[in-house]
# Entry
Amino acid sequence: MVETLLLDAGGVLVFPNWDRVSGILERHGIGVPADALRRAEPQAKFAIDSAYHVASTSDADRGSRLFHLTFDAAGVPKGEVRQPALDDLWAYHQEHNLWEHVPGDVFPALEQLRAAGLTLAIASNANGALQRMFDRVGLTPYFHAICDSHVEGVEKPDPRFFQIVLERAGGRPEAALHVGDLYYVDVLGARSAGIRPLLLDPHGLYKSFDAPRIESLGELVSLVTRETTTTRR
# Structure
C-alpha cells in the first residue's frame, strides 16, 4: 500500500512559463510564440535525459541545455544574439523560479490524492527558489515536506536525496511511490533508494524504457486510489 507519495515539481506539477519566456525574447527583438516553445520542450527534455548527461552534468547544466535545445527547435536565432534574453531569464529564475506554470489538472489531482489519505512530499532538483514559488502559486499547503536539491546540497538521482525527503515526510521506502518525468534522474534514482518509481510520460517518448508509465495526473489518481482501496479490503 502506498502511504507516502513523492512528486517531482518541474515536469510533473509545474512547468516553464513559456508565455513569460516569449515576452522576454520579444523585449530583446526575438519574436517566437510561446506555443512554439511549448511544443519544442518535450523533445528537448527527452534529449537531455541520458545516462551520460545525468552522470556528467548537474541539474543546472541540464536546465541550460534544455533551454538551448528548446530555443533551437522553436526557431530562436543561435549564437550570442540569444544571450541577453537568457541572462534575463536566468535572473528571473534565480529569484522566482521560472517553472511557475501550474496546469489546470494539478490542484484537483492533489485534492484527490490528499483525500485518499496519502502523505504528499516534493522531491525536486531545483535552484533554491522552489519554496517561494510554491508559496506564490498556492501549492505549499498540499505537502508535508518540500525538498529542494539546492537547499539540501544533494540532487537526484543520488539516493541520499530521496532518503532526506522520506525522513522529512515520515515515510518508509517500501510504502512510498515517486513520480517524476526523467528516467535517469527519477526512475533510477528512486530505485536506488528502494522506492517504487512511476514515470509521467504524456508524450509517449519512453515506451521502450523499463519503467511503469502514466500519461496524466488523472491516471495517477486512479492508480493510487485503486491500489489503496484494494489493499484496505
